[in-house]
Inverse folding.
């Protein structure tokens, strides 16, 4: 099944200024041993879109994000980001593509040996060659944005899970990515900390033109931020629709079952 | 058997010189084993097996043969190949090489204990490989490797008397020299025994302080 997030029936204009296709997957298959997690998937995401991937565990959602971040390779098929092929590609090109993509992980993955501020400045300084004071000024702005301006010098391990995840979001944004990949970013959080992180992401979705691909089990959040929701099952997209459609009147019985189980 | 404080006094000038040689061998041997072990570990992670294979065979060989045999080999065989080192330099090289095959395993375990998510975060931020190692992986591995490395330092200390066999005048070398001159064995051997305990204990104290610093 082919999914085009550019086809809209709600007449809502694409967010942001940069239009056109940014991400394209064609015939992507991924197997782990005998288990096929993605089965000939086609997917296209336009710049500025917010796409949410839902579905049962093991249906390949996270694998898509990991492939876009080049953390894992597809067994078959092609992946293109901003016109650049990813697999196979020379290391130098891959690095250029990676710079356009930021990722936030379920387990935060902050660097525990660095202060919060250096977690955020390390990549802009070392990868983008930004002067240190500029990177720090920007990191402070981002920490302000995520509500942690007073935690600059703290070690990540001293922060709560929710605070760590907000730092991780600031760290990803510091690279000014065109695409933000959000991999179950609230799944590891205590329930009372989830709302703060989701509110922050809602803000970012509203106020920037960043393209978002989001794997989540938070259906309320998916409804709020998405232009398009993709329902995965057994390595395929079985239904793709705007949130107002898929959450109130899904076409497929499998989608209905899944939603009634999680809502 | 009678304890003779006079014999202790006779031994002391020699003892201090011996202690200095022992500490020198220990310090240099440790540094070589720390540095070389890290080199082995990193080489074992190179993608081509034409690098990994010879390194693996060499280090396995060194680890599985006795240090004493290696010292003899370095001391008697290297000169035949035109390499002549002083006894102390040979001894330091031998101990450093031998223990590097152990420290490499410590490093490997320390590196593997860094969660895979750290590598993934570094990739997601496009950090270059050398920066990922220097800024992310090694600083986290080091606090896990300090305790086992410290144990090897103490183990190395207890192996330094082997250097006597290739003519290094360490503590044991000096004690034997003096003992044979005066036919008094009890006092010099007791003195160096106490010295080994004191140095081991001080080393373990130092180690614990270092550990506490790093864990913070």
């Amino acid at each position: 099944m082919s999914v085009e997030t550019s086809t809209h029936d709600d007449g809502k204009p694409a967010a942001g200024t940069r239009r056109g296709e940014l991400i394209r997957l064609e015939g992507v298959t991924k197997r782990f041993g005998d288990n096929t997690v993605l089965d000939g998937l086609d997917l296209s995401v336009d710049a500025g879109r917010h796409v949410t991937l839902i579905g049962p565990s093991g249906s390949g959602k996270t694998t898509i994000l990991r492939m876009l971040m080049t953390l894992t390779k597809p067994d078959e098929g092609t992946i293109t980001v901003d016109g650049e092929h990813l697999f196979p590609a020379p290391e130098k090109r891959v690095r250029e593509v990676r710079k356009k993509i930021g990722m936030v992980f379920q387990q935060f993955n902050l660097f525990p040996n660095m202060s919060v501020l250096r977690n955020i400045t390390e990549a802009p300084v070392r990868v983008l060659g930004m002067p240190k004071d500029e990177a720090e000024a920007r990191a402070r702005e981002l920490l302000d944005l995520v509500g942690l301006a007073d935690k600059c010098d703290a070690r990540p391990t001293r922060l709560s899970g929710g605070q760590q995840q907000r730092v991780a979001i600031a760290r990803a944004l510091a690279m000014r990515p065109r695409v933000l990949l959000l991999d179950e970013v609230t799944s590891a959080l205590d329930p009372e900390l989830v709302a703060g992180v989701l509110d922050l992401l809602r803000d970012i979705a509203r106020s920037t033109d960043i393209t978002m691909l989001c794997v989540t089990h938070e259906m309320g959040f998916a409804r709020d931020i998405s232009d398009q929701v993709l329902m995965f099952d057994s390595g395929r997209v079985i239904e793709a629709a705007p949130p107002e459609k898929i959450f109130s009147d899904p076409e497929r019985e499998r989608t209905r079952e899944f939603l009634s189980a999680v809502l | 058997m009678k304890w003779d404080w006079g014999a202790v006094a006779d031994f002391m000038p020699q003892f201090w010189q011996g202690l200095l040689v022992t500490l020198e061998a220990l310090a240099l041997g440790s540094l070589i084993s720390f540095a070389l072990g890290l080199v082995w570990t990193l080489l074992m992670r190179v993608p081509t097996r034409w690098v990994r294979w010879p390194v693996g065979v060499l280090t396995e060989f060194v680890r599985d043969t006795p240090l004493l045999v290696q010292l003899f080999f370095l001391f008697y065989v290297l000169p035949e190949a035109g390499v002549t080192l002083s006894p102390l330099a040979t001894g330091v090289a031998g101990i450093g090489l031998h223990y590097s095959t152990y420290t490499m395993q410590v490093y490997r375990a320390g590196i593997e204990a860094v969660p895979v998510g750290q590598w993934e975060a570094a990739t997601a931020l496009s950090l270059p490989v050398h920066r990922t190692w220097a800024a992310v992986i090694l600083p986290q591995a080091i606090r896990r490797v300090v305790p086992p490395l410290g144990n090897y330092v103490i183990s190395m200390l207890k192996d330094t008397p082997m250097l006597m066999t290739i003519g290094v005048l360490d503590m044991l070398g000096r004690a034997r020299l003096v003992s044979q001159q005066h036919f008094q064995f009890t006092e010099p051997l007791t003195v160096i025994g106490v010295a080994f305990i004191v140095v081991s204990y001080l080393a373990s104290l130092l180690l614990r302080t270092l550990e506490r610093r790093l864990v913070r």
About this structure: The interface with chain A takes residues 115, 117-118, 120-121, 123-128, 131, 135-136, 139-140 of chain B (CB under 8 Å). Chain B has a mean pLDDT of 91. DSSP finds eight helices and no strands in chain B.
